[in-house]
């Protein structure tokens, strides 16, 4: 432990911020102490479905005389606390403050309270419990080769606290050391420093190896990530590997090897050189609830991106872009989530345009995004708090606010700013913003002031930015102004959809659907075609749905982006032939983007089948997804 006098800067910072913690979704007193380094010594116990070990936090003192350290925990067992190696008094709140968990209060005794000590090291003996919301444990039967168990974490937004006691706020960034024991290969969100030290197992249990990782770049707690299972890896670029089960490795390698490095280089051209040394992808089992999670070093990705046609690698462009927006420059709280996701979607589409040398691709992707935005706004209602760019999350669960809105409204805002000041000028602001706030956390007001300051000496840009109605952008619920999209790539999809609409209305005489209609479409163009059909006020007739499914081979597609949208159309049409396949899809794919619309459609068509499907697959779903489905079901039954 380093002992040195507390710096003037630290005291000033504390005085400025002690009464104004920016993040309402943490119970920690992070304005009094700030985590500088986190060491996780954990053993993964697959039988007990637990992590057990010691967490060591190195905390910087920000407030003089502060005698309490309050940390976030949720469903953790704490068995001992020490400060600088000496036993310390602590109290784990016996009742929970929903949805934030049980604060752990550690007393800083007189001998450690000297203001001359700028840092303290706290060791906490801890194990996770069965109620842990950050981990999913799979039995061998739930994995593809059915040989070994599997576990992985998902900490965003506020689940890190159920994995380790910490200051669980994106406003605090810490370096990390991971020392993880497991009988199976381990990945963590750091650079591997070598697996060693075999320990033979006792009582018939398998032996364990120690896997060590180091994360020298400070990162927020929600990027703490672990996975362990029967993992194999292959190269997909000069600084990139893909990890997955041994049987899926070849397919995954093929899916990513063409695009990964060009994506990284395109992003570097737009922002600046990649900071995290390596960029790798871990393809998870199908219950992973998201498209991807931007855990540093290892993006965690859904297997639905591996569609055998390289048509869904845009997820990689997205997660990679997070290496700058989110991971290097982080939102200070989940109320400003658009700074993470809006920037990332904006960069993802810039990367696509750069790689394809074509701005139309960017517009086309934004058109798909606008549909997702419309769906989310419809779901919440146009006046809902969660349809704002900057949301109020006091007392709320950030998971409840999660939707496409911060992604799409955020990227629309950035695109609006690009057009307002002009692309050349805006392109000089991008690296400035990511340099200015590198390794920091920012809120919307800092974003605004950084932008205004950057263009201060440019009268034309400055005038436009000052005239902009910032409050409307930040706080008005519902839709932002719709951008003027270049619809070249979408028009063919709309035209085909219109023909189906006419056929459905009994108006068309000369349109005879055939496979050739979509032979030149990319998978994303088929997506736009299907989404257009979904917007028609009159659902297709069940017989037309069946004809579409067989003519265009949507019903047999391996691409879940297509098949899930096709089923949604079938459910809208009350086409009974898709009820069972839709229920089967819900038993194979746990990505919430697909589960949400298909489950909703199924509830509306056949409530009993929907309930049975949830019941049958309870253990398959990730806790976050299961919770969402449960809430959807409760709302639906209440509304009936
Ligand atoms: Zn994202």
Low-confidence blocks of residues = 1-19
* Helix proportion range: 25-40%
Our Rg estimate from Cα atoms comes to 25 Å
Largest sheet: 8 strands, mixed
* Mean pLDDT metric: 94
Bound molecules: zinc ion
Give an overview of the whole structure:
The chain has 20 helices and 22 strands. The strands form 5 sheets. An 8-stranded mixed sheet has the order 5-4-8-2-1-11-14-13, with no helix packed on it. The N and C termini lie far apart (61 Å). The structure holds zinc ion.
Summarize this structure briefly.
Its EC number is 3.3.2.6. Keywords: Aminopeptidase, Hydrolase, Protease. The protein is an alpha+beta fold and 640 residues long.
Secondary structure layout plus pairing:
Elements: H1 8-17, E1 33-45, E2 50-61, E3 68-71, E4 76-83, E5 86-87, E6 90-92, E7 104-107, E8 119-128, E9 135-138, E10 150-153, E11 174-182, E12 186-188, E13 191-199, E14 208-219, E15 226-228, E16 232-237, E17 240-244, H2 249-257, H3 260-270, E18 280-283, E19 292-293, E20 298-301, H4 314-321, E21 329-331, H5 337-356, H6 359-380, H7 398-401, H8 405-421, H9 423-436, E22 440-442, H10 444-454, H11 459-467, H12 470-475, H13 488-504, H14 523-535, H15 542-551, H16 560-572, H17 579-586, H18 592-605, H19 607-616, H20 623-639
Parallel strand pairs: 1-11, 17-18, 18-20, 21-22
Antiparallel strand pairs: 1-2, 2-8, 3-7, 4-5, 4-8, 6-7, 9-10, 10-15, 11-14, 12-15, 13-14, 16-17, 19-20
Helix pairs in contact: 3-4, 3-5, 4-5, 5-6, 5-8, 6-8, 6-14, 8-9, 9-10, 13-14, 14-16, 16-17, 16-18, 17-18, 17-19, 18-19, 18-20
The protein binds zinc ion.
Zinc ion is lined by residues 318, 322, 341, 344.
